[in-house]
Amino acid sequence: MQPDGFHEVEETVRGVLRDVLGIDAARAATFDQATPLFGALPELDSMAVAGVLTELEDRLGIVIEDDEVDGDMLDTFGALTTFAASKALT
């Protein structure tokens, strides 16, 4: 069971990926917890990561410290959503 607000965070993450990376809504809607991101989405290169993280900070009202950014958090849609929820829902 997900914490209250998790679905909203998930939709925010989906929207950020759609808007920052230029992914169409239908494609973004198919993302689930296991959907691979960094290294699998050509749109999500190292330059785009900064844009995604900045937009997550703005939309969720969170601060992502440099030492929190690693490959694991960007590995899958689920990992990124769980990370964002851990920051936004505490």
Fill in the CATH topology: Non-ribosomal Peptide Synthetase Peptidyl Carrier Protein, Chain A
Instruction: Give the name of the CATH architecture.
Output: Orthogonal Bundle
Stretches where pLDDT is under 50 for at least 5 consecutive residues are none
> Given the structure, what is the number of helices?
4
Largest sheet: none
The CATH superfamily label reads ACP-like
Strand content: under 5%
What is the string of helix and strand elements?
HHHH
Strand runs, count: 0
Pfam families: PP-binding (PF00550)
Protein name: Acyl carrier protein
InterPro entries: ACP-like_sf, PP-bd_ACP
Organism: Sphingomonas turrisvirgatae
Kindly summarize this structure in a few lines.
The chain is mainly α and 90 residues long.
Describe the structure.
The structure is a single chain. The protein has 90 residues and is mainly alpha-helical. The protein has one domain (6-88): Non-ribosomal Peptide Synthetase Peptidyl Carrier Protein, Chain A, CATH 1.10.1200.10. The chain is 53% helix and 0% strand. The two termini are 16 Å apart.
